[in-house]
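Working notes for the structural subgroup meeting. M.R. asked for a predicted model of this chain before we commit to crystallization trials. I am recording the input and output together here so anyone reviewing the notebook later can reproduce the run.

Input as submitted:
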Amino acid sequence: MLQGLSYSRKNSCVSIYKTRIAVGEAIDNLKLKNFNLQHVSIIDTGFHNAVHSIDFYRTNELICFHGKQNTAFFWVSEFGPLVAAGAIVPILIKGHDTSHASDCFGFDTLAAAFFNIGIPRSSIARYEQALMADQCLLIVHGERNDVEQACYLLHSDTQQVAVHVA
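Returned structure, recorded in token form:
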């Protein structure tokens, strides 16, 4: 897991973007404001970034690769190809490997990861639907003040950001 991040931090903000270009612009905005990008994750249904894998394995539900700098490719039966980058990758992998939330709450791997970072059950379906519609998620997970700062930086008249705090 990334240094400094833990499951006990149940604070997240999630923003849904229609294009990968918009996600890139949002990340550029966070960089410009000196936001710590170790707290940022992207989840996308594209698999164009999966070409630089360094480790690969298959399980009943997923086909996974681990890339450099916390990137991973998953083949999830509900979505098909799913690319994740950032702080959520170790949570996705650990959640899948232990399947605790999945066993206890009936979640699939992605929903279990969302639940583990503090996204309530009532919001998980919206984010899964966005991915099924080929949209991208930008997630900030960490301490409450970091999440609130990210929300402030990402929110605009045309961009909604949902905050989930413990």
